[in-house]
Specification:
By secondary structure, the protein is mainly α. Helices cover 47% and strands 2% of the residues. It has eight helices and two strands. The chain binds iron/sulfur cluster.
Length: 228
């Protein structure tokens, strides 16, 4: 058993709070680095079974902070297959608005490629970094509706929750310091991945395009959960 969830959550939050980012890109890179470093320190690090091409966890709702969404939108624009990716993201965001997407839907993420890899892996959200598995069979069985129970690396998961919690407020303050009350407040919290990216791409990367974006429904992959 790992130290308490709260301890790892606090470690994550403190790791990011101690950085002095000059831009939102700096901040997201610091957050991603902290996530990797703390995950490597997890007592369950050697038990993790995640491998390239294993995609069960890419079929859930993903929540992103405003700064992560901005960083990801830039990564999508720089991708060699950007036009196709943008079209897939736009279709998914539009479909979700029409069908009132449920957190229980098991649809693939628009960034998931046909070879089972993530098109933006280096820039993937914290929600994706934090969801690692110590039981690949359990993930696969659950994904197929056959009753499996995923067992994430708890220390890594809670550390990333702490980082995401800190990123939310630091990021909003960096993006729109002059608007923090009240408009900037709308940039706090987490947004549904596809809707956030679609809005940013339509709004030429203006972070205020995120105002009113869908919030992720309660879902296992959301980083909005509080430490146990
Ligand atoms: S962003 Fe990448 S890692 Fe995250 S759910 Fe989508 S395909 Fe999977």
């Amino acid at each position: 058993m790992f130290d308490s969830a709260h301890t790892w959550f606090r470690r994550g939050a403190e790791a990011l709070a101690s950085t002095r980012p000059r831009s939102h890109v700096d901040l997201v890179e610091s957050a991603n680095r902290a996530a990797e470093e703390l995950a490597a320190q997890s007592p369950e690090a050697e038990l993790r079974q995640c491998v390239a091409g294993c995609t069960a966890c890419c079929h859930f709702t993903v929540g992103v902070t405003a700064v992560e969404a901005l960083r990801l939108a830039a990564a999508v624009s720089d991708h060699p297959d950007a036009a196709n990716l943008r079209a897939r993201i736009g279709k998914r965001a539009t479909d979700d608005r029409i069908t009132k997407h449920s957190a229980q839907d098991r649809r693939p993420c628009a960034m998931l490629q046909s070879d089972g890899r993530c098109a933006v892996y280096a820039d993937r959200p914290l929600a994706c970094r934090g969801w690692t598995s110590t039981d690949r069979v359990g993930c696969e069985l659950e994904h197929r509706g056959l009753g499996g129970t995923p067992r994430p690396d708890g220390a890594a998961y809670h550390a990333v929750l702490g980082i995401a919690h800190e990123l939310e407020s630091l990021g909003a303050a960096l993006l729109v310091p002059h608007l923090l009350a009240p408009d900037g407040g709308e940039l706090r919290g987490h947004f549904e991945l596809h809707d956030a990216l679609h809005r940013l791409m339509q709004g030429d990367g203006d972070p205020l395009a995120l105002r009113g974006a869908r919030r992720p429904l309660a879902a296992r992959r959301s980083t909005e959960a509080s430490p146990a």
